[in-house]
From TrEMBL, chain B:
InterPro entries: AAA+_ATPase (IPR003593), ABC1_TM_dom (IPR011527), ABC1_TM_sf (IPR036640), ABC_transporter-like_ATP-bd (IPR003439), ABC_transporter-like_CS (IPR017871), P-loop_NTPase (IPR027417), Type_1_exporter (IPR039421). This is ABC transporter. It holds the Pfam family ABC_membrane. Residues 353-591 form the ABC transporter domain. Keywords: ATP-binding, Cell membrane, Membrane, Nucleotide-binding, Transmembrane, Transmembrane helix, Transport. One of its GO terms (molecular function) is ABC-type oligopeptide transporter activity. Its main location: membrane. CDD domains: ABC_6TM_Rv0194_D1_like. Residues 588-616 are annotated as: Disordered. It is found in: Cell membrane. It comes from Streptomyces shenzhenensis.
């Protein structure tokens, strides 16, 4: 059933059915936002341009690989020709005691066998190199591009999609390249060779074989159309199964606590049965195709044999030619079963490539400067802070919706500023503008007089570091996680930072201390402890300006105090912006900004605001009462 | 997406057959169709071996005799055989298409139902990606195994034997020459498959590692950008993808060598047979038709021979998949719990929620380590609310998980109104006890359904409104479709504070007798927190509640406070009592060191705005 030249292990009947986990979070919300429907605008021609740019540097090797395949197929398809020669020429020659032709057959056949094997080896190797280089290039591009895109893109594109772009979508391309494409080319090439050889052997017999391609082509098209639809339904069905599965397992606590098991069983059953049905449909579609193509092929064989044998009987055709034709026919029709499947994998890879091209077509909204400027040298060593100026800054999302109306704000070097206000007041946006996660729609953010947009990334991060609420830990040890703040830091420096922030005790109590792998069992690290690691990271980074965005939300009061103490000593003289909904944080601030609906409504020293009659004074009074 | 490496340790090498036999209960219902399909495939395969014999008959008979009528007959035979073969191929696929999809679905549904009922401790150990890959990829492998290798190992075995018999019976010498490479070829394929599987697994692991870097780079994007670390991430990515490329090339080289062997050896054997055959035809010892039939049969046998190695490899893979499946499936589910156990008349002193000498240690805790919770005696009287306060890592969350039996106590017992919770069925217990977790998870249904699932099924519109207003979650009405808006994984994403309020509404909607809240207000801003607290106070007036609290504001919701210190209850009393008498508590609430005079005194007054001018 397998073509001798195929390079992949024989695929199973009804394979091509790996669950398509991509885009698991299908958004049922029908909104006009392209992000919601996972269709980023792909500029026309971007997909083929991407493909061209991936293959361009490999042109020479693609050509060599193609040549290898051409020769390999020639060697493979020469066999039956030698059979014809043996029967029609060598046998009569032997009878004349001329062993020349027989020796020629022997040598020729051995040569063909060795050549087709050797070339097969060379071809698979060469093709793998091309494929792997394309994939390496593509993976790297997606990764670098995703990293270059701004935080606001990441917030809207969702991590799941980005991950499935660089995993499932690349994987479907890999499958096409390493299994589908070369097999498809091989099949097409053998079609061409065999048809040509048959036509050359005998025009009539060849013509019958070529004529059978017509119905075969129609069958393949029909299958492709019908199966394409079924496959799409099936991949939607399995995606729904996966989403339900993951949601249940990730939310196992509430599932149990709210006795959802039976309801879930029923819901999962519905999704599972839908997948079962489409899966069966796909397999049946394949069965129909197999029956159809076999019927056409076997009928063609019968017709060719009938006509050929008839002519051999009447003496107008050599027996060897008929034998060769029969052998060729077997080779010709063997791989058609799988032709339909290749076309499907091609379709899914094309869809994946288009999604990837759409992602790569996004331009980073926070680009690196062409000619970066340097920050001026710090005035004195004990005053490491820098002045921050928001100069006529306004911010609105690109899709509309103003978040921060135009404002001016100056934070003197070394000042600790607390920003308070309710959810959605614009506190985080202010912080993200300062960290250059976003660029302002109008105006400039200046660090010691230099526009943030003119700083290179490393220079910017020596200037401003932001610690956020979600304290994500990367796989690796605790020490490595802290060292993200400054990769060249020594173990002593790492431990000093952890001690300063009050994280040393819990880290020390972990099974392997600082060398505990955070992803391994036994490394139960609570949300509060993760935040402490995040702080140690920031301490180690030693920036001029530190932004804390609700970075203490999961800490208990003593933890928060330890952080504050560390900040008031270790970070003395640095400029700091602290966003918190806990008023205790405000205690270490020199100045408080109260924000509401994107505007700064109160601004002053904490004492001054507490003594006043504004919102902050009310809040603070309530908080004090709770401590009394 | 599987990110963590499989937790499978190297197990004793159990035989693949024994492992696969465990699938029998699932296959049993479709056995008739499966066996019929295998039989059909054997017949179809043998039919294709008859075709060369018809060819031989034609060449040696009518063609040699110049009998056109005989040719017609032969072609008719060929056509009939061809139609039969196509029909049987189709029949085989038709027979198994639906049943095997059904087996796969059954296996998946079983797994899902089972996983839902496994203890929470099990889920703590297993990443959901690992479970998912068992529920998808592994099951697909099993379906493919049932559809393909299982049948074709039999079919190809029979085909090879029949083919050999045909060839040897026609001419034993030629037969031996053509079949000569078969045994070494099968052996080579098998050896190759072992090696290939090893490299393939390596590649799979490396893809997993690469995926981890990708995932972390996306999930930790704010940290990477916040510290400007994208270069080092990119370096890690480049190294890993370079390694992967190397492994993939190794894989390709292995594949290339085996294909070189598969192509060369049989071809050489056929060449030898052709030469020898030609000599014998010339000598008149062999008919031309036999030679044609021979070569044709040899060609027909190539796939069955070549494929044995691959089929065995797929079988091995399927065995591994089965093992992975049952690894999870064999884990023991929680007993539903005895309903209506020994009912003891609860005395008034037994009312409320009571912990009696409770000890707890995580099942995977290293031996010898102290238990997470020890010697917990705590009595929350009916209608009373108790705050649970303790330093980070003191075991507060663990304690709350014991009440709805998300974890099982290691020793001691917990009673609700005098009834041991292990005497209640889990369903009953969880109806009585409502919970809100610190990490609020919403499901992919509407906001309204998310809230109402906290009730007992009788909760209606009015209860929904009441719960939303208690949790200050009226924002739900302003969502695009109001309370019918889809949320969760597949719907609108809500902020942490919004999700926390919905989760709180879910906990209170059923007016539970017992309420367990784990730091339920941590993501709320001060204004909202104050409003929620005011509303909660009314709810808590007649509910027995255990509330984990970090902040004085939350503590004030409760009538009394229990201080948890290193897994033990260190003190119980009112907030103000403990503030005065317990230094550790005062420290936790105010953050000042014990004995510090200025406990709770903001330093703010000492930092006048005037300093701003100085700094310039």
């Amino acid at each position: 059933m397998t073509a001798p030249a195929s390079s992949a292990p024989p695929p199973a009947a009804g394979s091509g059915s790996r669950p398509d986990a991509g885009d698991a979070p299908l958004r049922p919300l029908d909104s006009g936002d392209p992000f919601d429907r996972d269709v980023l605008p792909t500029p026309p021609g971007a997909t083929s341009a991407l493909l061209r740019s991936l293959l361009a540097p490999l042109k020479a090797r693609v050509a060599v690989t193609t040549l290898l395949l051409l020769f390999q197929q020639a060697a493979v398809q020469a066999g039956p020709l030698l059979v014809a020669y043996a029967i029609d020429s060598a046998v009569p020659a032997i009878r004349r005691d001329d062993h020349g032709p027989l020796i020629a057959v022997a040598v020729g056949y051995l040569l063909c066998a060795l050549l087709s094997g050797g070339l097969q080896f060379a071809f698979i190797e060469a093709a793998a190199r091309v494929n792997q280089d394309v994939l390496l290039d593509l993976r790297g591009r997606i990764f670098r591009h995703a990293q270059a895109l701004s935080v606001d893109f990441h917030e809207r594109y969702t991590s799941g999609r980005l991950i499935s772009r660089s995993t499932t979508d690349v994987e479907s391309l890999r499958e096409l390249l390493s299994e589908g494409l070369q097999e498809l080319v091989t099949v097409i090439l053998s079609f061409v060779y065999i048809s040509a050889l048959l036509l050359w052997l005998d025009l009539g017999l060849g013509a019958v074989a070529v004529a059978s391609f017509g119905p075969l082509y129609l069958l393949v098209r029909l299958y492709q159309r019908r199966a394409g639809r079924v496959f799409q339904l099936r991949s939607t069905a399995i995606a729904a199964v996966i989403v339900k599965f993951v949601e249940t397992m990730n939310g196992i606590r509430p599932v149990r606590a709210f006795r959802r098991e039976a309801v879930n069983d029923a819901e999962f059953g519905v999704l599972n049965r839908r997948h079962e049905r489409t899966n069966g449909d796909a397999l049946l579609e394949m069965a129909r195709y197999v029956v159809g193509s076999r019927l056409v092929a076997n009928t063609a064989v019968a017709v060719i044999v009938l006509w050929g044998a008839y002519r051999v009987a009447s003496g107008s055709l050599a027996l060897g030619v008929l034998a060769a034709a029969v052998l060729y026919l077997r080779r010709l029709y063997d791989p058609i079963d799988r032709l339909g499947m290749f076309l499907n994998s091609y379709q899914s890879a094309a869809a994946s490539l288009e999604k990837i091209a759409g992602l790569l077509a996004q331009t980073p909204s926070v680009p690196e400067p062409g000619t970066p400027r340097r920050l001026p040298a710090r005035a004195t060593a004990d005053r490491p802070g820098r002045e921050v100026v928001f100069d006529g800054v306004r911010f609105a999302y690109r899709t509309g919706g103003e978040v921060l109306p135009r404002f001016d704000l100056t934070l003197p070097a070394g000042q600790t500023v607390a920003v308070v206000g309710s959810t959605g007041a614009g506190k985080s946006t202010l912080a993200k503008l300062l960290a250059r996660f976003y660029d302002p729609s109008d105006g400039r953010v200046l660090l010691d007089g230099v526009d943030l947009r003119e700083l290179s990334a490393p220079e910017l991060r020596r200037g401003v570091v932001m610690v956020t609420q979600e304290a994500f830990l990367f796989s690796g040890t605790v020490a490595e996680n802290i060292a993200i703040g400054r990769p060249e830091a020594t173990r002593e420096e790492i431990e000093r930072a952890a001690k300063a922030i009050g994280a040393h005790e819990f880290i020390d109590a972990l099974p392997d201390g600082y060398d505990t792998d955070v992803r391994k069992r036994g490394g139960r690290i609570s949300a509060g402890q993760r935040q402490l690691v995040g702080f140690a990271r920031a301490l180690l980074a030693d920036p001029a300006v530190l932004i804390l965005d609700e970075a203490t939300s999961s800490l208990d009061v003593p933890g928060e105090r330890a952080v504050q103490r560390a900040m008031s000593t270790v970070l003395r003289g640095r400029t700091a912006v602290v966003i918190a909904h806990r008023l205790s944080t405000v205690e270490i601030a020199d100045r408080v900004l109260v924000m509401e609906h994107g505007r700064i409504v109160e601004d002053g020293g904490p004492g001054e605001l507490i003594a006043g009659t504004g919102r902050f004074a009310d809040l603070h009074r309530a908080w004090r009462d709770s401590l009394a | 997406m599987p990110t963590t490496r499989a937790t499978t340790e190297d197990r004793p090498d159990r035989s693949a057959v024994r492992t696969l036999l465990r699938l029998w209960p699932f296959v049993r219902p479709v056995r008739v169709r499966l066996f019929t399909a295998a039989f059909v495939a054997v017949v179809a395969s043998c039919l294709s071996l008859v075709i060369p014999l018809v060819l031989k008959w034609m060449v040696d008979g009518p063609v040699a005799d110049r009998d056109p009528a005989g040719v017609w007959l032969g072609a008719l035979y060929l056509l009939l055989l061809g139609i039969a073969e196509a029909g049987l191929f189709g029949l085989r696929r038709w027979l198994v298409a639906r049943p095997l999809s059904h087996v796969e679905a059954e296996l998946r549904a079983e797994l899902y139902g089972h996983l839902q009922r496994l203890p929470v401790a099990f889920h703590d150990r297993w990443a959901s990606g690992q479970l998912l890959s068992r529920g998808t990829t592994d099951l697909m492998l099993l379906r493919m195994f049932l559809a393909f290798p299982l049948t074709f190992l039999l079919v190809n075995g029979v085909t090879i034997l029949v083919g050999m018999a045909i060839m040897v019976s026609q001419d034993w010498l030629l037969g031996l020459i053509v079949l000569g490479p078969a045994v070494p070829l099968m052996w080579t394929c098998l050896v190759f498959e072992r090696r290939y599987a090893h490299v393939a697994r390596l590649a799979q692991d490396q893809v997993g590692d690469l995926t981890t870097v990708v995932e972390e780079s996306v999930l930790g994007i704010r940290i990477i950008k916040g510290f400007g670390r994208h270069r080092s991430q990119a370096r890690a990515f480049r190294e890993l993808s370079g390694t992967l490329r190397g492994t993939e090339l190794r894989k390709a080289r292995l594949l290339a060598s085996i294909w070189a062997v598969i192509v060369t050896l049989p071809e050489a054997a056929i060449g030898a047979a052709l030469v020898l055959g030609a000599v014998r035809v010339a000598d008149g010892q062999l008919s031309a038709g036999t030679l044609v039939a021979f070569l044709s049969t040899a060609l027909a046998l190539r796939w069955p021979v070549d494929s044995i190695g691959f089929l065995l490899a797929m079988t091995q893979e399927a065995a591994t998949a089965t093992e992975r499946y049952f690894e999870v499936r064999d884990a023991h589910v929680e007993e539903p719990g005895a309903a209506g156990g020994p009912v003891r008349k609860p005395g008034p002193a037994d009312g409320g929620l009571r912990f009696h000498g409770v000890r707890f240690r995580y099942p995977d805790a290293p031996p010898g380590s102290p238990p997470t919770l020890d010697d917990i005696d705590l009595h929350i009287r009916p209608g009373e609310s108790m705050a649970l306060v303790g330093a980070t890592g003191s075991g507060k969350t663990t304690l709350t998980a014991l009440v709805p039996r998300l974890h099982e106590v290691t020793a001691g017992r917990i009673t609700l109104d005098g009834h041991d919770i292990t005497a209640l069925s889990r369903a009953e217990l969880r109806t009585q006890v409502a919970v809100a977790f610190e990490e609020p998870t919403l499901f992919s249904v509407s906001v309204g359904e998310n809230v109402l699932m906290g009730g007992d099924g009788n909760a209606g519109r009015a209860d929904l409104e009441r719960a939303l207003s208690v949790a200050q979650a009226e924002f739900a009405h302003t969502l695009p479709q109001g309370t019918d808006t889809q949320v969760g994984e597949q719907g609108l994403s809500l902020s942490g504070g919004q999700r926390q309020r919905i989760a709180l509404a879910r906990a209170v909607v059923g007016r539970p007798r017992f309420l367990v809240l784990d730091d339920p207000l941590s993501a709320l801003d001060v204004h909202t927190e104050a409003a929620v607290e005011a509303a909660l106070r009314r709810v808590l007036a007649d509910t027995t509640a255990l509330i984990v609290a970090h902040r004085p504001s939350t503590v004030l919701l409760a009538d009394r406070v229990a201080l948890l210190s290193q897994g033990r209850i260190a003190a119980v009393g009112t907030h103000h009592e403990l503030l005065r008498t317990n230094p550790e508590y005062a420290h936790l609430m105010s953050g000042e060191q014990p004995g510090d005079e200025r406990a709770g005194e903001p330093r703010a007054a000492g930092a006048p705005a005037g300093e701003v001018e100085d700094a310039r």
